[in-house]
Every structure is written in C-alpha cells, then in structure tokens.
Amino acid sequence: MPQILAGVILNKLFAKIFTFCEDFGLTLQSGKMKIRLIKRKTIDKYIIDNARSRSSFREWLSNLDDACWETPDDIVSLFNHADLLGNGSNRVVFKVGGNNYRMICKYWFGTTKVHLYVKWIGSHAEYDKLCDSGKQYSINNY
Fold first, then answer.
1. Which residues sit opposite 35 in a β-bridge?
2. Least C-beta-crowded within 10 Å: which of 56, 63, 86, 140?
3. Collapsing DSSP states into helix, strand and coil, what is residue 49?
C-alpha cells in the first residue's frame, strides 16, 4: 500500500512540475513532448452515441495520457494499429477497438507539446466509404 501511495504522490508531483515547465516553454525530455488532445468531447459524445465503443476508446485515451512524442513515427510506435496518412496531410488514422472503429486526427508538433485534433470518428465500414471517396485527407467533421 505505501508503494501505491508513493506512486500516486510522485505522479501528481510530476504533473505539477511538467505544467510549470510547460508554462515557461521548457520540456522535460529531450525532444519528447506530451500530447494535447483537441476535441476530446467529440470522443466522449461518440462513446455516448455508440456504447459498445466505450472500453475501446477509454483504453486509447489512457494510452494517450502517458504518451510523449518527438516525431510522427512515435505515434505509430505507441499505437501500432495507427497509419500516417500521406499527401502532406499531417493526419493519422487510429484503428481503435480491434479495428472496429477508426478515428482520423490531424497532428501538429509545437514547441512544447504535440497538438492532436480529432477530425472524424466512425466504424471501419464508414471509414472504407470515406476512403473510397478520397475524403480521409480533408474531412473535418469536428
């Protein structure tokens, strides 16, 4: 029990130190940056509308909370079921829930954190239709 309590305290302390450094434009790791998810409410709404997706997206969000990236390749290293979209789109498609769901996000590597913008969420079948029409590079539902 004392080890768990110590871990919780250390996690809270690290979060405060990280926030302090971020406020002053500093990074704690060489080049690796935490991720700021833009439009998280979009994921929450999708979960409400598609209850079966809840555990899959919760797991994805949990992995994202601990992530630190330096390059787009780090995205694929953490989420090995992710594919970087080409055409200079700075987009990634995440395969969530054993490939049942797909989520397209646009990423931007800032100076102190990586910004990840949710652009589209749907089923695998809906994603296939999106790709058939070539819209995966430009869709912006949220």
1. 114
2. 86
3. helix
Write down the pTM of the prediction.
Answer: 0.77
CA dihedral angle for residue 94, residue 96, residue 100, residue 106, rounded to 10 degrees = -30
Q: Which two tokens stand for residue 72?
A: 């787009």
How do the pLDDT tens digits run along the chain, 142 residues long? 554 544 445 455 455 655 555 555 554 445 899 999 999 999 999 999 999 999 999 999 999 999 999 999 999 999 999 999 988 899 999 999 988 999 999 999 999 999 999 999 999 999 999 999 999 999 999 8
Helix (H) or strand (E) run with residue 63 in it? helix 54-65
Rounded to 5°, angle at Cα 42 from 40 and 45: 115
Please give the full DSSP string across 73-116, using - where no structure is assigned. Answer: HHHHHH-TTEEEE-TT--EEEEEETTTTEEEEEEEEE-SS-EEE
